[in-house]
Write a structure and sequence with these properties.
Strand order of the largest sheet: 2-1-6-7-8-9-10
Shape: globular
Radius of gyration: 24 Å
Number of strands: 20
Number of helices: 13
Structural class: alpha+beta
CATH class of the largest domain: Alpha Beta
CATH architecture of the largest domain: 3-Layer(aba) Sandwich
Number of domains: 2
Largest sheet: 7 strands, antiparallel
CATH topology of the largest domain: Rossmann fold
Helix content: 25-40%
């Protein structure tokens, strides 16, 4: 369960910026949008709005970067770079490390884990634990060494085994540290995906459809969305190089045949009813998912696997451009899964960036779930929630029209569009 995520000096975020999923005291959608833990109430997700190039994707990329470094840092060689870019538009920050930190709950214990890193190495790393109210350090890493506390005995004698470009937590996990393994498992369930490049996620969907325990929920979801087909057929067969396009370069064909030898090709078909002239169903027709169904249907199919995977495991799903290629009602359907007691029994959380302002009206989001990202004249991104926003010193009331206010620019985080007639006049040479 994610409580907070913070990033600083990374891409367009110059200073520390935090997204919190700790529910505030407001009384909105209490029965559906929050869940209770032993120490606090948490939100089931958040939605992020902002103009193009405001920094929405950069914030999500920060989450993706932290997960990548935690999960993969141990596997890197000592010479590999970390692929981290600091805020480069200011002389004070361009050579300083980036900051990443997550606060989360595992088995009723609250952890605060984070690190500072540049493109070459980790400059700092820390892990704190709070079983009750008092937070205690388990280890502290600085450039001159790693201090392991007595309460983190699993990390003893591993300090010298940690490379500059590897995380100490990942090293302890490799040596079967109990706490480290729990935290690594949590980050494995902290999933970030793109709503634009979603082709790579369909493998997860295939696996879930082949599993009898998970396929029913997926198929039921497709039927409720009325996507135009009645069923799905999945088949596997050995890869055949003869099926590659005939105009493909011979060298590339040879390479693919070599690389994919022994691999299985997965075909997915949608099943449609066929009718006669009187409207009577007379049979079934198979459509190829990729070539004969819409881009929106393909996207929904591809991301549905990760969505239901997170719902089953109770993890965190972060999606950039969730609404791309989707009808607003389909976007709403995905978001409502996480506020459903039937589908979300393990308190999974959904964080996503979108331009779909309709969700501000019918998405039933609390004010502390709605975030805005805005970039200033110096290229610095700032993020704030609607519950934090003040208008003439007062908080925004829950009965306001959030969508209308946002479009009118009351909350900021929208593009400034000048007089387009001037552009047209110049373009026409008048």
């Amino acid at each position: 369960m994610l409580v907070e995520f913070s990033v600083g000096n990374f891409l367009s975020f110059k200073t520390k910026t935090t997204l919190s999923l700790a529910a505030t005291s407001i009384k909105e959608h209490v029965d559906t949008n929050i869940f209770s833990t032993e120490r606090n109430d948490l939100l089931k997700g958040a939605v992020i709005y902002g103009a193009n190039a405001s920094g929405k994707s950069n914030f999500i990329r920060a989450m993706s970067t932290m997960r990548r470094l935690v999960v993969q840092s141990f596997e890197q060689s000592s010479r590999e770079e970390l692929d981290i870019t600091a805020f480069l538009l200011n002389t004070e920050t361009e050579y300083l490390p980036s900051f990443f930190e997550a606060i989360f709950i595992i088995d009723s214990t609250r952890y605060r884990y984070g690190f500072e890193a540049d493109d070459k190495k980790f400059r700092a790393e820390w892990l704190f634990e709070a079983q009750k109210n008092v937070e205690k350090p388990l280890f502290l890493r600085e450039e001159d060494g790693i201090e392991v506390m007595k309460t983190f005995s699993e990390g003893k004698d591993l300090e010298e085994r940690t490379r500059d470009n590897a995380l100490f937590l990942a090293v302890v996990d490799q040596f079967n540290g109990k706490i480290a393994k729990k935290i690594m498992r949590w980050f494995n369930n902290f999933i970030t995906i793109s709503g634009l490049s979603h082709e790579g996620y369909k493998g997860v969907t295939f696996d879930m459809l082949e599993n009898k325990q998970t396929s029913t929920a997926l198929l039921d979801f497709y039927k409720k969305l009325d996507l135009g087909f009645d069923d799905i057929s999945i088949s596997k067969k050995p890869f055949d190089g003869k099926e590659l396009p005939k105009d493909m370069p011979e060298s590339l064909v040879k390479q693919l045949v070599t690389d994919l030898e022994g691999a299985l090709k997965i075909d997915i078909k949608t099943i449609h009813k066929k009718y006669d002239a009187k409207g009577k169903a007379i049979g079934l027709v198979e459509f190829d998912m990729r070539s004969q169904e819409s881009s929106g249907t393909n996207k929904l199919f591809n991301i549905s696997g990760p969505v239901f995977d997170v719902l089953n495991d109770g993890g965190v799903l972060v999606v950039d451009e969730l609404d791309a290629s989707l009808h607003p009602l389909l976007t709403l359907a995905v978001t409502k899964l996480f506020n459903s007691k039937d589908f979300n029994r393990n308190n999974a959380q959904l964080i996503f960036a979108t331009h779909d302002t309709n969700l501000l009206y019918y998405g039933n989001y609390r004010r502390d779930q709605i975030y805005f990202v805005e970039k200033d004249q110096y290229g610095v991104s700032d993020m704030y929630s609607l519950v934090e926003y003040k208008e003439q010193g007062k908080t925004i009331r829950k009965d306001r029209s959030f969508e209308k206010d946002y479009i009118e620019g009351r909350y900021g985080a929208i593009p400034f569009i000048g007089n387009l007639s001037n552009v047209v006049t110049k373009w026409q040479g008048k």
